[in-house]
């Protein structure tokens, strides 16, 4: 499992690492800093083939375009505002791509984390995922909590 | 609806060890409904509230027989503050219960005797102005009784009185499992009060409510099932009336992270319209866009 956060969210890193542990039962270790994203890898390494990335949409998009060859995970979870961005370039036969729930305008709204006793503000999908993962495996929780993006072949 | 208040025992004496029970005040603006009153301390506060809000009497709904929901009602009656008490009047259903027990050895009088013995607090109310929950579903404007289902109630009581299958029902005692459920509608909100009820008793209703009292003082077993059922409804506000001190665990094992929960154990009285209509709503107004 890899979990990437944009540099502007770096101050949330410890709370997010606690979130990952609470929800996925994975410790995280810093495994890289690149193109304005900080990467954490879940430990045990290779436990599950999921790639999470969160940040502002234009930064997320640029990172994914630039590094698409290095993203081999079977589940790709993009936590950002979709707006008019398209992620077709990421799609392979082997993977499924998900995005955080969007409102009617194509934005992923942020909720107050302290209302949920979580240490950082986050998207609705991340709240649902946090609770879903208590009773389901990570893949099932991703499917329950995020919106899958389908592509026309 | 003027306000709904879940009383907290946080300022009472010996709150760490004493069980002051539940007490909820529902002030419609024209009528006052009291859902349970578990201690004299709560009763004193109810009486003071009535004085300040110029209510001479109130409608009491007693969710079930347990003392931590009943003990303050005596004082309210003594002080002549009660117009009517709505609860489950099981003596009306002796024949139905006898039929459900289906034990040819048991006589009608014996079943009556068992009801009076095992539902002793309710029996103590004999002579007061009582109303059975299945005779009056609408209590006041916006306040109505929605459960338990009558057949569930009678089957559960029959099982308890029969005794051959033990007293447990759906993970709760029979008395708790059949707690009276009240729905309160105000503005665009729906609030569910459910005493100490079992999860199956409310399972098919919880998704219809955006504010829910977690049953049995926030015990984690029922709460976790409700959370799972409403997993995608993140804006749901959960209320916990845990004034149980060290007496029965209450919400001690409740994991509150991931949900919007207000608990009387940690705060002063919970005033419902305030917590759902404050400026700080769930959404920050920020987006993960530009």
Distinctive features:
heterodimer, A: 153 residues, alpha/beta, 7-stranded mixed β-sheet, B: 290 residues, 12 helices, 17 strands, 24% strand, globular
Any chance you could write out the topology, listing elements then pairs?
The complex is a heterodimer of chains A (153) and B (290).
Chain A: E1 2-6, H1 13-24, E2 27-34, E3 37-43, E4 50-54, H2 57-67, E5 75-79, E6 96-99, E7 109-111, E8 122-123, H3 124-132, H4 138-145, E9 147-149
Parallel strand pairs in A: 1-4, 4-5, 5-6
Antiparallel strand pairs in A: 1-3, 2-3, 6-9, 7-8
Chain B: E1 3-6, E2 23-27, E3 32-37, H1 40-52, E4 58-61, H2 67-70, H3 73-78, E5 82-87, H4 94-101, H5 108-118, H6 120-124, E6 130-132, E7 138-140, E8 143-147, H7 150-162, E9 168-169, E10 172-173, H8 174-177, E11 181-186, E12 189-193, H9 199-202, E13 211-213, H10 215-218, H11 220-229, E14 237-240, E15 260-263, E16 270-271, H12 272-277, E17 283-287
Parallel strand pairs in B: 3-4, 4-5, 5-6, 12-13, 13-14, 14-15
Antiparallel strand pairs in B: 1-2, 1-16, 2-3, 7-8, 8-11, 9-10, 11-12
Write a brief caption for the model:
Chain A has helices spanning about 15-25, 55-65, 125-130, 140-145, and strands spanning about 1-5, 25-35, 35-45, 50-55, 75-80, 95-100, 110, 120-125, 145-150.
